[in-house]
Structure formats: C-alpha cells, structure tokens
Amino acid sequence: MKGYMIGFAVSRNGLTSEIKCPCDEKDISRVQDDLDIPYNTDTRVTVVGVDSDIEQLSVLEGQEIDLDFLNLLGRLMYGMDVGEYEQFRIGLYHECPSALKDIINIAVSTSRYSIIDPNDLHKSGLDHECDVRGGIPTSEVDITDYSTIGKQLLESGKCQKTPYGLLYVNEENPVESFFDGKHMPAYYDCDFEVAVALVDGENEDFVFLPCSDAELQRSANRLGASFPYDLKVRIDDTPYHNNDLIYGLMKKADVYTLNKFARLIDGFDDDENEKYVSVVSYVDRMFKDFGGLGSLDAATKLGGVLDAFTYIPEAKDDYELGHSIFSEHLVDEELEPYVDFTRLGEDTRNNENGYFSDNGYIGLNDGEALRTQMAQKHTDGMGGLT
C-alpha cells in the first residue's frame, strides 16, 4: 500500500488556508489566493496546524516554511509503503528533529531504523538485512535463518523501547544529506519529459519539465537569481538521452526553451512522438548545408506542422511505400493487380524528397506550410528554410 498524505493549515496576512500534500500547482495557487499573496512566485507561509497521525510532525507548527518544501515532505510520505512509514515514524521519535530539513532527511533514511518484533523474529531479521544491505538476492531468502538474526538483534542490548515498538538503529546507515533546507533536491516521483537542475556554482535546484513559469521562477529564486535564464542548466534525465540530434539541441537550450519543448512533447501520443522524431531528423538532414536545425526552438516549431510530412513507419522500400499509399487512399482493391507499387512509391519519394530510414519512410508533402511555420528563424540555424 502507498498513499500517505499529510495536511497543513497555513497562514499569512491574517488569513488561513488548508492544503493536502502532495499537491499540484493549482493547489498552491489556490492557497496563495486564499492568503492574499499577490505573486505566484511567493510561497512562504506559516504552518498553524498539521493533520497527520505522526505526532512528531506537529513540531512544524509555528514555523515559516516554503509550500514547495512542505509538498516535498508530502511527496516523500506518499511514496512510502507501510513498513517505510512506520520506520519514518519511529525514526522521528528517535532523532527528535525540529526543522523540516531534518524531517525530510529522515524520510529518505528509513533503512537506518529497523523495527524488531519479538513475536515475529523471522520478519524482523529479514527486514533488518534488507535495511542494511539495501536488498537480498532471492536465492538467499529460503536458505537463511532470519529468525536467528532477529533473535541476535533482540538480545544485543541495543534495542530501544519506543511507543511504536523496539527500535534497532543501524549506525552504518547514517541520516542522508538529501535536502539542504534551501534547494529542491531530485526526487523522481512524477511523469516528466525533461528533469533539469538549475545551477549556480555548487548549488542546484531541480525542476521537472513541463512546469509553470512560476515554478521556474521559484527555482531561480531559491538559487538567488533574478531570472531562470541567468542560471546554467544541467539535464539530469530525459527520454531523449539516446537521440544524439535532439539531445544535442537540448543541451544548448535555455530552460525556457526546454520547457516549451517539454510542453510540446507532453501533448504527443506514442505515434505522434515517433513521427516527430523522424521529422526532426529529416529537416536537420535536408538543411544540413545551411546549418541544419541549429536550435531546440526550431525543433520545437516543427511540432506544429507534422501534417506537412508523410511518415509511414512500416514502409522500408518503394514497393511498401507505394502499397501503403494505395491502401491509405482506399483505391478500389480490384485495381491492385494492375498497380505498379514500386513505381508509385518511387514517384512519391522523389516528389516529397523523401527517404527510408530504420524508422520507415519520411518525406515532405507541404513545403509551404513548413516555410510558414519556420519563418521566424534563429540566426544559429534553419538558414535553408528562408
């Protein structure tokens, strides 16, 4: 089971609102409206109530905290299974943290806290080994005496009584330095097209794209920058890592352009994405002598004119191309024996300046639509489309 949420009552300007975490940008915007906060980049609030059955979290009451960081705690708790949740609870009891920074770091360090159940020493021993080793090969599970391990832990003299059971602290697993209290760390719990870190010297702040402009600005603010484009960008992960062309363009782009690109891709289904990748390769190849695409902005514009291209993934030669075109146009099947599919495919390929690749056939069927879409070219590329 997963799905532990936490609720907060927060205040500012003499007003109070409530929010359940994890939440999305709409929830944050609602709270900002409730609290009469005029700027969507301002997320500082005072916690006046905590709705959770983990009583140690009430220490947050009275503290001024960023909503994004409260949401980070909610995201971490929502990702916990039953065992991790109980380890988190007992870890908070043991460590007695007072700051959100320390609470969050305990949340990602649950393997430090093994709970020993005298009535189930086998499970206690097995869980402890998983905590210490990070996992156990299945080949060991049936041949290891975990009851004996559990008994040794119980009799070690190191178990601490708590309201939540016996705690054995795995000292070899320190509390992780995951969150510094100032910058958003990388926690992969959502769908994304591009995971980026905005970078200022040794400090990084992670954002998953696509996101709102307000989220980008808040990330920049956490790094002390006036605007996101004042910062370096490091791409941490993307489905396009293995596409040398698109990934190369991404690495040269600013975060606003990356976000625009991510919004485009996020709206594609699998077939549209496959066609888009082929279109980008086609245009870059066709205008290579003029600098090719040159920029991610140019590649993003192509997403608005996919219909200007013929893409037939199943066509690997002129015959298959001709047959696909014949079938697509619903020509009378009785004519099929009289059609020269190879000639039809060859003529189509020549007319569209198309070619075959490992991904099928790609050609340009509406050059005017492409020129119109790309009219506002950048000086660093797309010269051939003028």
Helix and strand composition category: alpha+beta
Task: Please tell me what the overall shape is.
Answer: globular
How many domains? The number is 4
SS strand fraction: 15-25%
Instruction: Kindly report the average pLDDT value.
Output: 93
SSE map:
Layout (H helix, E strand, L loop, with lengths): L5 E7 L2 E7 L3 H10 L9 E8 L12 E3 H12 L3 H14 L4 H8 L5 E4 L4 H13 L4 H4 L4 H9 L5 E3 L2 E5 L24 E7 L2 E7 L3 H10 L9 E6 L6 H8 L3 H12 L3 H17 L9 H6 L7 E4 L5 H11 L12 H11 L3 E3 L2 E5 L2 H7 L13
Antiparallel strand pairs: 1-2, 1-3, 3-4, 5-7, 6-7, 8-9, 8-10, 11-13, 12-13
Explained architecture:
The structure is a single chain. The chain has helices spanning 25-34, 67-78, 82-95, 100-107, 121-133, 138-141, 146-154, 213-222, 244-251, 255-266, 270-286, 296-301, 318-328, 341-351, 367-373, and strands at 6-12, 15-21, 44-51, 64-66, 113-116, 160-162, 165-169, 194-200, 203-209, 232-237, 309-312, 355-357, 360-364. It has four domains: 6-79, no CATH class; 81-181, no CATH class; 194-262, no CATH class; 270-385, no CATH class. It is globular, with a radius of gyration of 28 Å. The protein contains 15 helices and 13 strands. The protein is an alpha+beta fold and 386 residues long.
